Amino acid sequence: DSGVTQTPKHLITATGQRVTLRCSPRSGDLSVYWYQQSLDQGLQFLIQYYNGEERAKGNILERFSAQQFPDLHSELNLSSLELGDSALYFCASSDGPNQPQHFGDGTRLSIL
Amino acid sequence: QQQVKQSPQSLIVQKGGISIINCAYENTAFDYFPWYQQFPGKGPALLIAIRPDVSEKKEGRFTISFNKSAKQFSLHIMDSQPGDSATYFCAASKGGSARQLTFGSGTQLTVLP
What we know:
The complex is a heterodimer of chains A (112) and B (113).
Chain A: E1 5-7, E2 10-13, E3 19-24, E4 31-38, E5 42-50, E6 53-57, E7 64-68, E8 74-78, E9 87-94, E10 102-103, E11 107-111
Parallel strand pairs in A: 2-11
Antiparallel strand pairs in A: 1-3, 3-8, 4-5, 4-9, 5-6, 7-8, 9-10, 9-11
Chain B: E1 4-7, E2 10-14, E3 19-25, E4 30-38, E5 45-50, E6 56-59, E7 62-67, E8 72-77, E9 86-94, E10 102-103, E11 107-112
Parallel strand pairs in B: 2-11
Antiparallel strand pairs in B: 1-3, 3-8, 4-5, 4-9, 6-7, 7-8, 9-10, 9-11
């Protein structure tokens, strides 16, 4: 158990809808990272937050947004969903920008 | 542009054998190279990591070999066990406060009993 909790584990929705994925980092970890894992693109970095502030952006679509709250949990918001957004979304956390990242078990998003 | 290339895509090894997975990177700014292990239905779990100031790091049955001049690094699993059957990802990140990981495409390892 990595200590990183992601909810929900599975999410099924339709095109055009909006969903929110939640991540609770390991106790004390200030950095949260979001990654997308798909069959065609592999594991790709989306965005990072450190203590509530955005620190880095990767291949994140404009339809996607994220935030980190004062209690350090993070949410990834996906809107105007398309079939191609079906993927596993992982959250990782670390106790500093230069420390190893520990991953949660992901949220599997299926768009019908 | 794929910055970390991983091979092979799949690997079958007999129990007790040595599993070898290779990665090559392009960005010379990378300075941290972890390997992750992923089982079905689970997130990637950090296995072992190396920085470019050393050429080899060993932890139990797992060894990373690093060749800075060739921009290559590899994972060796000694005495492979059926429980090692999983997908393995190499990754790389570069200095700075962000340190987002760039992953290889993954290797599905099967260890036969």
